[in-house]
Structures are given as C-alpha cells and as structure tokens.
Amino acid sequence: MKKILICLPGNEILQNNISKILNIPIGNVDFHTFPDEETCIRLLFDCQNAEIIIIASLDKPNEKIIPLILLAQTCRDLGAKRIGLVTPYLAYMRQDKRFQDGQGVSAGYFAKLISPFFDWLLCVSPHLHRIKNLNEIYTIPTFVLQATLEIANWIKLNVHHPLLIGPDSESEQWVESIAKLANSPCIVLEKTRHGDKDVSIQMPDFKQWHSAIPIIVDDIISSGQTLLTLAKQLVQAHFPPPICIGVHGLFAENAYTQLQALGCEVITTNSIQHPSNKIDLSTLIAMQLKSIQVD
Ligand code: R5P
C-alpha cells in the first residue's frame, strides 16, 4: 500500500525529515479558516487506497483536535485505506485519576474521542503514570517510543561529569534509563504539587555531588514551575544553574524566559517545535514507522 505523510501546521520539520529518511512522499493540505473560525480541509493530493500518516503533536490540544479530526475524516472520505496518527506529544495524559471530587478523568475521555478516527497511534514518552499502558484507554493499536537514547547521547556529547536529577517519582522511569545510557549518577526527588503553578520539592543532601553539573530531566515542561523550583533550590545550595532537559517543551506563558533568566540552559526534543529543540526525534520515529504492520 502506498504511504503518504501529511501534518498539522507546526509539524513540518519532523514531516520533512521523516519523508527524507523513509522516502515517503508528502501530501499537501490546505487548512482554510472561514471568517467564523470554522476550518475547511482540502487535500491537494490523491489519497485513494493509500495509508495516510498524519503527524500532529497535540500541544495546545483544544485548538488542534477539531482540525485533526476533520483532516482524518476527509482522508477517509476520499478513499484512504488506513490512517495512522503520529503524535510526538500526546496530550491529556496527566489527568489520569479523579484528583478532586467532581472532576473527570480526561485521559480516558480523550482516548475515546480520538480512537475512532485512526487505525493506529504512535507517540513519544507519553505521561504514563497511573495508566501503565496506552492500551488501557486507547481502542486502537498504539506504539510508544522513548527518547531516552537520544537524550543520553546529547548528554554524553555535551556535558562532562553530569548528575541527573529526576524532580519527582514519576520521572524515575526515564531518568534512571537515561543515566544508565549516559553512564552518569542520578537521583530522584519527591515533589508535592499544591496547584497548577505551585510545587514544592524535597532537597536531599547533595554535598557528595558538588563538583557535578546538575541536569534536571522531566518529560513535560508546562508552567515550568517544577524546573524553576528545583533550579532555584540547586542555586541556593551553591550549584551552578542546572541544565533543564524536557522531552516535551510546552512552555506555558513565560516559562521559557523565566528558566533562561535564572541562567538555566533549556534543552528539548523536537516533539513540539520550539527554539529550545536540540534533540531530534526524526530517526527514532522513522525507524518505528518502518516496522508498523497493522491490518
Ligand atoms: C508531572 O508529573 C510531569 O512529569 C511534569 O513534572 C509536569 O507536567 C511539569 O509541569 P510544570 O512545568 O507545570 O511544573
């Protein structure tokens, strides 16, 4: 079956890289916004009998989900045989339980919302915490990639004598694997979240690592408060401003500039296009795409 790559606006770098690596053609799409802000999709290629691979990172998901569903349905309607979704950043994974009375568990609702439009889904380092496997909530085949090797390689190339720090217990899963690959020590801290922009982190005694370069590694940088809080505490403990590595740089409001103002070097993967992107995921995603067989 012929394959065609398409993307939502903002995903062109990954789309173009993957197209080159796998020699898959790109299909152009016109996203027209009517004066009333409704979207009209027009495919500028023939998708008859093709497998369509849509690349769409779902940061700012509320504004992207309708265009994404319209795009997938347009492809289906015009004869696509199979439609896969590559969503390097998969949204709505953090509300994985009812934290307060009366709340919904959005992770499951979101999965139910998008599953019917796609034949498979591929994502990178989704926030799996209380949900251990995407198949618990998605009804289509899912493929999960981890950016651990790419991050470890960046650290090995760029930092001499690092100390990897996971800011909370959830980070243990990726920080420990990255530390192993980068051959570096690591510690995982305890974080308490009091609100969207209010966290506290318990600092152990760091003295034995005083000559190391601290690198905080987290999956998501959203408000930036997790990294900012820990970075300030490290500076108070006489460490240099840490390097902050996030797989997914969402950077709500002025999170990026606040981290930079503190002297932190901020590094992200290109799961979401941003000036901090220094770690490329194209090959990781392309290699997985090569082997996806779904009937
Ligand atoms: C949460 O558990 C995640 O792993 C991240 O630590 C969190 O999403 C970061 O959010 P923020 O940047 O708003 O502190």
What does this structure look like?
By secondary structure, this protein is of the alpha/beta class. 30% of the residues lie in helices and 26% in strands. It has a six-stranded parallel β-sheet with strand order 9-8-12-13-14-15, with helices on both faces. Helix 4 packs across helix 5. It starts with a strand and ends with a helix. Bound molecules: ribose-5-phosphate. Ribose-5-phosphate binds at residues 167-168, 170, 199, 218-226.
Main attributes of the structure:
six-stranded parallel β-sheet, 8 helices, alpha/beta, binds ribose-5-phosphate
Describe the oligomeric state of these chains in a short phrase.
Answer: single chain
Rg is: 20 Å
Hetero compounds: ribose-5-phosphate
Tell me roughly what share of residues is in helical segments.
25-40%
Q: Summarize this, please?
A:
With 295 residues, the protein is α/β, with parallel strands linked by helices.
Which helices and strands occur, and which strands form pairs?
Blueprint lengths: L2 E5 L4 H11 L6 E5 L5 E5 L7 E5 L5 H17 L4 E6 L18 H9 L5 E5 L17 E4 L2 H11 L3 E5 L5 H11 L3 E3 L1 E6 L2 E5 L10 E9 L3 H12 L6 E7 L5 H7 L3 E5 L7 E3 L2 H10 L4
Parallel strand pairs: 1-4, 4-5, 5-6, 6-7, 8-9, 8-12, 12-13, 13-14, 14-15
Antiparallel strand pairs: 2-3, 10-11
Helix pairs in contact: 1-8, 4-5
Ribose-5-phosphate binds next to strand 12 and helix 6.
